[in-house]
Specification:
The complex is a heterotetramer, with 2 copies of chain A (416 residues) and 2 copies of chain B (140 residues). Chain A has 416 residues and is α/β, with parallel strands linked by helices. Chain A has 14 helices and 17 strands. Chain B has a single domain, classed as Sufe protein. Chain: A. Chain B has 6 helices and 3 strands; from the N terminus they run αβββααααα. The radius of gyration of chain B is 14 Å and the shape is globular. The chains are: A alpha/beta (416), B alpha+beta (140). The complex binds pyridoxal-5'-phosphate (2 copies). One pyridoxal-5'-phosphate sits at the interface of chains C and A.
């Protein structure tokens, strides 16, 4: 984390660190506006992973030999880096998973199953990505608990006025909420929700897939119980994600997957579990991906998460201003840059988002079109699909200009 | 740009053929691609084993709607067995633009819906790749 | 797969493709004899992954734009490569997981939970890696089914004489067996077990973590119902594994993890699932690792799996002969090379395996010491730990010689 | 080679000090590292708050057994509170060889067992990192 005044970052210099920006699409320089879906990768991260495979690759937690020691040290150092990044009180609370989705499923299928039953209430919101919604549906169905969703207003702002009514419906056990909507960029009032959840004695599960990549996230300040994010959205490889969870809870929870690494001792009739965090890591972990994640975190911290946050804010403001120039374009979500991250969803007259995305691709502009894995939110807002442009530390105003030029061409081609 | 949204495609999109509904269809079905929200509804009238009339409504991307419009032209007057056996490639050829795997789904939505409609209405075979067990169909 | 007469492979030429063999440990060239734990990686695999990240990286199954199409195509092409490798009847039967462990847990926690109950019997063996043992313990406990283990003889050969008695204990639902012991290298009589399981109407789950890497494996010829293996043992990255399962079974089984990618449509109160194989792949998959796995499979197939099998057999025979020269050394497992793969476990007088491994490391020789995630097997054979040397396509007789020299030095240092 | 298995270590391994058991120990415990199979059993006699006699048996790697032998020398005559508070580093220093994280577990097995024995027998505090709730202990 950087100090008080975030150093301004220079996205043009940063781009030089990302080999993919040498790529041309249809003869034009790549404009990548889909970082909310997955991030691009800096050379330093790729070098760290390849370097690891080329010098220290060995299975972890097993080998007495030098390579095995190096690889274990590298894997566990990545855990330390994650703990530092999110200010976890203990490295024992950092569990490596495949992605955010697995992390959230892990909570639902262990803590959730152990703590929920008929008469209990699970609370989520219509803002959620399917990853923070479907596991709770499955949990509610499996346990007989009631699942309630907080609504949003027409611009996607989370409404808390039903909380009192929900509290009267039963024992609220779990509150699962996103730190930032991947579709709209809005940031729900997490602090208020946490206060309310605490008063109910409920656990708070925070889906931080959209915030760990781009601003300082502090699990202690947030005072949540679980937090999940994905490596692939934080400059790191695919195949690795993180579940952070309070040690006191994880320690008394039964394991999720079982097998090697997560055991203490195995007999034919009886098995005992390893200590935290390994109890929740069955089988050979994604240790090379952990090395990549470590390098990605180093890169993010060198740039500074405050600086990235500030940059995304500035880019989003610029984008909102320029999108306003496009006739027939309507922003979906809050119209101002204040309460949101670097994500903008929009629709354009009645041109279908797929057509927009496909025509933009001819301009080498990558945007997402669809429901963005938030079908209930789309339904609530009355859209079958939107176009989504999302930004990151390497996004430039020149790229936004290319988006706008592309959108004018969409209007021409589609005759609107 | 030109090879993407050809004039023919845009013409079908802006001026869809056989648009609307039939009063007394012999066959009908809805097709929906929940991933992108494309939708079509098809009504078919069968006379003497042939498609006598066909109408569609829908909304979605240009590819899905233009392809459905082209399809209705293509199958008009065809024996139902022949229409039910129409391969996806026929529609893709008709569109005449390069399509990624994802856009192929848009292109064949209308065709799949027609196959389901004919299957339900007059019992033509429904190959398993078009198998739909409810109204919420996903082609592909 | 190669033709009738396997081309002999030249491990020295192959080594040149693996950057890690440039590594020195304690001033000596690396001797890596721990491939049963994890394999080393060829440059071509690393290049494929880095090349992917540097040119086509985008999330899969989502983007209309060129990068998204390329990345989806690359991911799905990896699935085709796996289907070809194991001769799967359909690509829809190939599910990407993190590793073998997750694949086996997936079966236990879906098919297993759906099909097992009181009065049912699950059969496994004392040969199993914890990954193919603990999930069945957990399943038996959760469902009330009985778990029975087939025993081995003192050299680790699986005994089938209890099958009749087991069949009388209840409905045998699942038979979970390893294709090759990772500790002893023995290959249990899978065909006989499959025949018996078929007669019981039981499903067969084959743990092929130790065989897919090094010989032709054909799921149709094996006639099993599920098969699992890990990428990291097959020259591929960590973070990816494979579950192959019969389409008819997977199609009627409820999903495991839930979230994005694996859904067809989501409403607040109701969700429907995607088709196979995606129904079992929740969230952003390890798509770059899949690209690496594809390149690894290409590499293995170019060398030829028959040739690799023959090479491992020859190296194992050589190793067994030379180990025989070391005074006080006892092979654990069958003494002959015939019924085994490229894995040799041994003990040396009463020198503890950890001391052996540590002293060998000073000679840059990497071997495993411990229980190899097979505690019940070790207990059955009366060893707390063994030393294990395991071989792969890059293993040379010169490396075996270095192992033997090291073992003589172990005897000197430990004064035995 | 020389820095790995020094003469001192090998001497303790081959000729363990204070090997055996006590008839009437005031404190006793077993320690086991199931990962590598190292085991030690410790008997301690306490007189006037000091370790009057200590004996061990065990089997396992040279590091675990030599370290336990050195430990028994080290704590002989020490006040129990001081022995119970002995840091891991004291043993690691005593061994005098470089140890990887995995081998550190071997090195401190005896120390952990002693802490558990004293805790059980005479109630000295047991820091949580040594916390063992059954006889199957894993240090680390
Ligand atoms: C036979 C066998 N099964 C299962 C596993 C577990 O594999 P993974 O750790 O990759 O899940 C291994 C590897 O350690 C193995 O050798
Ligand atoms: C807010 C949010 N939650 C969860 C996810 C799921 O992440 P993953 O697919 O990496 O599991 C995403 C990303 O798609 C997301 O944006």
């Amino acid at each position: 984390m950087t100090g008080a005044t975030p150093q301004e970052l220079d996205p043009t210099r940063i781009r030089a660190d990302f080999p993919i920006f040498a790529r041309q699409v249809h003869g034009q320089d790549l404009v990548y506006l889909d970082s909310a879906s997955t991030s691009q990768k800096p050379q330093a991260m790729l070098d760290a992973m390849v370097g690891f495979y080329s010098t220290s690759n060995a299975n972890v937690h097993r080998g007495v030999y030098t390579l095995g020691v190096e690889s274990t040290d590298a894997y566990e150092a990545a855990r330390d880096a994650v703990a530092r990044l999110i200010n976890a009180p203990s490295r024992r609370e950092v569990v490596f998973t495949r992605n955010t989705t697995e992390a959230l499923n892990l909570v639902a299928k262990t803590v959730g199953v152990e703590r929920c039953g008929p008469g209990d209430v699970i609370v989520s919101t219509v803002l959620e990505h399917h990853a923070n919604l479907v596991p709770w549906q499955v949990l509610a169905q499996a346990t007989g608990a009631t699942l309630r969703f907080l609504d949003v207003d027409d611009e996607g702002r989370l409404q808390l006025d039903e909380l009192d009514a929900i509290a009267r419906e039963g024992n609220v056990r779990i509150v699962a909420v996103t730190h930032q909507s991947n579709t709209l960029g809005v940031r729900p009032p997490v602090e208020e929700l946490v206060r309310w959840a605490r008063a109910q004695g409920a656990l708070v599960v925070l889906d931080a897939a959209q915030t760990v990549p781009n601003r300082p996230v502090d699990v202690q300040a947030l005072d949540v119980d679980f937090l999940a994010f994905s490596g692939h959205k934080t400059l790191a490889p695919t195949g690795i994600g993180v579940l952070w969870g309070r040690e006191a809870i994880l320690a008394e929870t039964q394991p999720f997957l079982t097998g090697g690494e997560m055991i203490r001792s195995v007999a034919l009739d009886r098995t005992s579990w390893n200590t935290l965090p390994w109890k929740f890591e069955a089988g050979t972990p994604a240790f090379a991906e952990a090395v990549g994640l470590h390098a990605a975190i180093d890169y993010l911290e060198a740039v500074g998460l405050d600086a990235i946050d500030a940059h995304e804010h500035a880019i989003t403001e610029y984008a909102l201003g320029r999108l306003d120039e496009v006739t027939g374009l309507r922003i979906v979500g809050p119209p101002d840059a204040a309460a949101r991250g670097g994500v903008v969803s929009f629709v354009l007259d009645d041109v279908h988002p797929h057509d927009i995305a496909e025509i933009l691709d001819r301009h080498a502009v990558c945007v997402r079109a669809g429901h963005h894995c938030t079908q209930p939110l789309m339904q609530r807002l009355g859209h079958a699909a939107t176009v989504r442009a999302s930004f990151y530390l390497y996004t430039t105003t020149a790229e936004i200009d290319r988006l706008i030029d592309g959108l004018h061409d969409v209007r021409r081609v589609m005759g609107v | 740009m030109d090879d993407l949204y050809r004039e023919n495609l845009m013409d079908h999109y802006r001026h869809p053929r056989n648009h609307g509904t039939l009063e007394h269809p012999d066959c009908e079905a809805e097709g929906k691609n929940p991933l992108c929200g494309d939708e079509v509804e098809l009504d078919v009238e069968v006379v003497d084993g042939r498609i006598n009339a066909i109408r569609f409504t829908g909304n979605g991307c240009a590819v899905s709607q233009a392809a459905t419009s082209m399809l209705t032209d293509l199958v008009q007057g065809l024996p139902v067995a022949e229409a039910a056996a129409l391969p996806s490639q026929a529609i893709i050829d008709e569109l005449g633009i390069p399509l990624s795997a994802m856009r192929v789904k848009c292109a064949v939505l209308g065709l799949g819906t027609l196959k389901v409609a004919l299957h339900r209405g007059v019992g033509t075979p429904l190959p398993p790749e078009w198998g739909a067990d409810d109204d919420e169909m996903v082609w592909g």
